């Protein structure tokens, strides 16, 4: 069954109106007798002092922000909203006409979508208002082009439906009213647009019609529907969905472009359930299609957003307004005119231009920037060229070791993660080996090796890779020769690597928020850092041979990694897992243990 956030089904629309007014009550009011009639607070001023034509629109609820989102300066004077997908009553519409029209000598113009219920109720209300001496007229919006073929094939007295193009009619009429144009003048321009076929809209649903409360979710349908209405009406045809680009091309060529066009305005509308990410893709594809296949067509304005929905329908509509007409430039200026209606976009008055990227060197990698100052960092060749070979061997051993552990690391990660730690680290290890073969590492410069590793891990995906990228990048500062008295002895090099370790740990803890004892890579790293601190403190009395030192480090880090099996996770996805289900080491910590083991093996060669 479909799920909706409602209290009582019969009060759904009324509750929503009240919520809307809570956030827009500075300029809007609602009638106590008919709370579904919402108007500008200054409606009397408009009528009595400025004699501006009052504009009324409306229809069923479920299309928000239409229509109540377009009440305000520069657009509508009032709206009348019905229940979900139901036309408002004649009495409510008549109340709205009386509210804004009784003292308005300029008259009232109703903008009505072409649906039977709306035509009947707005029409009857208009006739009754005219009997009371109120000057009221209407225009019917019928921009749905999905029905053109069917109309041509049969005698249709119903006509085409009103869709999102109605919003552009609201805007054009509102701007004309602000200019004090007469009712006759406003209707003349709107009729020109509507009856001349200059306004065209096509709708698409990815998963059928909107679901109403209590309706069952339909079975999955791989096809999409083209040409469906905004009240749950089925589409005119179903087609397979390949991708957004092909779909947009088909809509323009089969529906929107049926004659020559030179200047247009586009409105890409979310029908309720489309993500903003997808809406951005659609907008790009519309523009790209026009640039590639209709380069002679100039896009004067483009609006992309949520303007007229069908409750939660997972779909969109595209409206195209042809500006190549007698009133083209006038209409463009009317669209650009200021409006304070909450639902109208603020990107007004700018001709569409081809997007250009800002050129510059802002994307230069940290590695490249630091290599410009490589003379400020230690170089192995200054002391012992064999260090370069040892570092290369270590990196190769580490990478092969991680690749061999891929499946085991995945298994460890699956206990409280997504089970891909081994895959990620193995892929990165493969990249490292490739970079070694391609001579991208400068092994004479340890800071360059660390920066190269940072770059590789940055593009590895996942939070662990980003943390390790941060670790390596921070560790490079330990090899700066500024204020450093370099000596080729064990104490100096252990201190340098330990300083790099400490800098890396500090950064990982600052941004990753992991602490010792919380089951992460921090545990073996902190254990190693603490061990080396103590070793350096007692260096002159308890100096060890490098081989023995490395063996002790390997055992220490292994034990620390194994101890994470008994820790309660506090960071990452593992923190959401029941601790009773965790009985194996952290995958990242185990990988750190493997790294130290590989370094030891490299030293033995």
Question: What is the alpha-carbon Rg in Å?
Answer: 35 Å
The SS-based structural class is alpha/beta
Q: Count of DSSP E strands?
A: 12
Mean pLDDT: 89
| Number of separate helices | 21
The global form is elongated
Uncertain stretches: none
Largest sheet descriptor = 6 strands, mixed
**Share in helix:** 40-55%
Distance between the termini: 67 Å
> How are the strands ordered across the major sheet?
1-2-4-3-5-6
Give me the oligomer status. Answer: single chain
Proportion in β-strands = 5-15%
Secondary structure layout:
Elements: H1 12-24, E1 28-30, E2 37-40, H2 43-48, E3 54-61, E4 78-84, H3 90-101, E5 108-113, H4 116-131, E6 136-141, H5 148-153, H6 165-178, H7 183-195, E7 199-205, E8 223-226, E9 237-240, H8 244-256, E10 263-270, H9 276-293, E11 298-305, E12 315-322, H10 328-336, H11 366-371, H12 386-404, H13 406-414, H14 421-437, H15 446-458, H16 463-475, H17 490-512, H18 522-537, H19 539-542, H20 546-563, H21 587-604
Parallel strand pairs: 3-4, 3-5, 5-6, 10-11
Antiparallel strand pairs: 1-2, 2-4, 7-8, 7-12, 8-9, 10-12
Helix pairs in contact: 3-4, 6-7, 8-9, 12-14, 12-21, 13-14, 13-21, 15-16, 16-17, 17-18, 18-20, 20-21
